[in-house]
């Protein structure tokens, strides 16, 4: 009825006939008129339906279409009535499952900016024999069977070392196997396997760590970079070089010397670039040239899931994004495995020399360091060895000469011939003013090697005089230069009172020194207490718990004392 009324109203408004049928018929007749062109003569225009007729047709069609749409919607509603119960049951079941999963498996990373230790859960590793054996087959497929070792002596050598301060207990596991990749791609594939199987990974390059960095406390596998020992590219004009992680700094400098270049960081003998990056180490040249952090331009890193990233390109400076290069330096393998490094190098000085001067007391020697640093004399290095260390070097007999057994400073000089002579003269005067009892300087290359040999043999000389069953504990701290005499004196006194045999050696130009302790069976707790007090002194003097050795297993508990709990929590969040 309502449709009929609306149609009549429309017809009245258009002036149409009283019935829809007649109007429609008239429109149809108009539309069906033949075109004159079909009869052989083209007419100037064809007859079209009137505007009123076109409007009626359009509205009628729309009303029919809407009627069909309403009918279809009604049918769809009827069909859905039977599914409502099923949908309700599904939604309820999914909600229960989601709640259970959220309760049973909470988020690994909390939304806060820091991550307290109390909020963490033990890593969900899988070191079941069946899983490790399956992974072994994967590793063989990646690097070949000859490059996957399960030999017991190899596993032990990748779990502990004679000079590490971390003593491996019998309960601590060794790696299940040692894998030797040769390329970044192989490292990536290895990490993908370990990530999928939840197998812990420990990186290994030179194995000269002093703080237990490569001890596999969670088992798993060890990735040894021994096959990745190549210098990939030298850009002499740009003063940079691209190397793999198992390149030793000594071998690198031998090759660079042929081009008149050198790489300044010089830690202990045997150290390799991968470990040097991992610990952010330095060496005797740190006073003038800085630490490893100042000499790395870019890194290629394989992340935990096998993703390969390059931290930046080769320009000397860049303000593009985060400085990921420095984030990885000092991360000790916790963020990824370094497979390539682009290092800065510099031109070898035209002239170098070495000087050695002895003092009556350790404070006199430390005071001399303060004078030299305060004067601005650009010496290349300043090292200190105490009287016990000099005595130890003589007993070991690893050098060509016999040394005065007194606190001794070792200086390196570099520059022009005239500049080096001026530096030597100024340091000699300051040494005398501080109470030196002797001053020798090298006049040739051979004499330089002879004078510097005592410094390089310090650790090995201490190890050479160990008694059967003795272990060595080498700890380092760093303090502001002005506090150096105090902490060295107090530490020497503490070592003597403990009853242990200990020596002092350090890169005192930047306030960093090492205490090397020998302890026998049953004396480890005494050594721990001595080191603990030394670290505590350094922190109280606004220093650091480690100047260059890195944190490792031995010093991780000291970090909150130096940096604060929130800072360590922020590191954990990263």
UniProtKB/TrEMBL annotation:
Domain of life per record: Eukaryota
Assigned GO CC terms: mitochondrion
SUPFAM superfamilies: FAD-binding/transporter-associated domain-like, FAD-linked oxidases, C-terminal domain
PROSITE patterns in UniProt: FAD_PCMH, TAT
Co-factor(s): FAD
Keywords of this entry: FAD, Flavoprotein, Oxidoreductase
One GO term of the biological process aspect: lactate catabolic process
Annotated ranges, domain FAD-binding PCMH-type: 171-348
Pfam families found in the cross-reference section: FAD-oxidase_C, FAD_binding_4
Alphabetized GO MF terms: D-lactate dehydrogenase (cytochrome) activity; D-lactate dehydrogenase (NAD+) activity; FAD binding
Listed InterPro entries: FAD-bd_oxidored_4_C, FAD-bd_PCMH, FAD-bd_PCMH-like_sf, FAD-bd_PCMH_sub2, FAD-linked_Oxase-like_C, Oxid_FAD_bind_N, TAT_signal
Similarity comment text for this entry: Belongs to the FAD-binding oxidoreductase/transferase type 4 family.
Record PANTHER family: D-LACTATE DEHYDROGENASE, D-LACTATE DEHYDROGENASE (CYTOCHROME) (AFU_ORTHOLOGUE AFUA_7G02560)
Protein name stated in the entry: FAD-binding PCMH-type domain-containing protein
């Amino acid at each position: 009825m309502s449709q009929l009324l609306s149609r009549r109203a429309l017809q009245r408004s258009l002036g149409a006939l009283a019935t829809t049928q007649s109007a429609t018929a008239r429109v149809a007749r108009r539309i069906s008129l033949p075109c004159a062109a079909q009869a052989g003569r083209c007419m100037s225009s064809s007859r079209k339906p009137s505007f009123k007729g076109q409007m009626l047709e359009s509205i009628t069609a729309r009303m029919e279409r809407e009627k069909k749409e309403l009918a279809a919607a009604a049918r769809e509603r009827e069909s859905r009535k039977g599914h409502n119960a099923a949908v309700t049951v599904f939604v309820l079941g999914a909600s229960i499952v989601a709640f259970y999963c959220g309760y049973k498996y909470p988020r690994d990373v909390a939304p806060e900016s820091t991550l307290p230790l109390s909020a963490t859960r033990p890593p969900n590793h899988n070191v079941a024999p069946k899983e490790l054996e399956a992974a072994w087959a994967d590793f063989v497929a990646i690097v070949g069977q000859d490059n996957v070792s399960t030999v017991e002596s190899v596993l032990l050598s990748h779990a502990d070392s004679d000079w590490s301060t971390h003593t491996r207990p019998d309960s601590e596991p060794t790696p299940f196997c040692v894998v030797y990749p040769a390329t970044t791609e192989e490292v990536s594939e290895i990490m993908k396997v370990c990530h999928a199987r939840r197998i812990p990974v420990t990186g290994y390059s030179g194995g000269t760590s002093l703080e237990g960095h490569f001890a596999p406390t969670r088992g798993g596998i060890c990735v040894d970079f021994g096959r990745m020992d190549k210098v990939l590219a030298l850009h002499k004009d740009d003063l940079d070089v691209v190397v793999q992680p198992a390149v030793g700094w000594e071998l690198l400098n031998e090759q660079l010397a042929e081009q008149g270049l050198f790489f300044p960081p010089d830690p202990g003998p045997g150290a390799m670039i991968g470990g040097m990056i991992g610990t952010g180490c330095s060496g005797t040249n740190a006073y003038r040239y800085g630490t490893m952090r100042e000499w790395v331009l870019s890194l290629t890193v394989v992340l935990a899931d096998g993703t390969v990233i390059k931290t930046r390109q080769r320009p000397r400076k860049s303000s593009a994004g985060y400085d990921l290069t420095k984030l990885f330096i000092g991360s000790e393998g916790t963020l990824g495995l370094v497979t390539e490094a682009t290092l800065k190098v510099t031109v070898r000085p035209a002239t170098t020399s070495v000087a050695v001067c002895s003092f009556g007391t350790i404070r006199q020697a430390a005071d001399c360091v303060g004078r030299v640093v305060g004067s601005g004399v650009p010496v290349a290095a300043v090292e200190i060895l105490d009287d016990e260390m000099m005595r130890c070097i003589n007993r070991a007999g690893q050098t060509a000469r016999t040394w005065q057994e007194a606190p001794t400073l070792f200086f390196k000089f570099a520059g022009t011939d005239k500049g080096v002579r001026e530096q030597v003269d100024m340091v000699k005067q300051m040494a005398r003013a501080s109470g030196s009892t002797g001053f020798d300087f090298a006049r040739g290359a051979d004499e330089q090697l002879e004078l510097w040999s005592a410094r390089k043999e310090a650790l090995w000389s201490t190890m050479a005089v160990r008694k059967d069953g003795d272990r060595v504990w080498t700890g380092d701290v760093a303090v502001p230069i002005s506090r150096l005499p105090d902490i060295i004196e107090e530490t020497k006194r503490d070592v003597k009172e403990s009853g242990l045999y200990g020596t002092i050696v350090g890169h005192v130009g930047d306030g960093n020194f090492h205490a090397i302790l020998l302890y026998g069976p049953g004396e480890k707790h005494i050594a721990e207490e001595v080191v603990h007090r030394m670290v505590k002194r350094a922190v109280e003097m606004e220093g650091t718990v480690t100047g260059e050795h890195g944190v490792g297993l031995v010093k991780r508990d000291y970090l909150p004392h130096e940096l604060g709990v929130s800072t360590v929590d922020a590191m954990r969040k990263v």
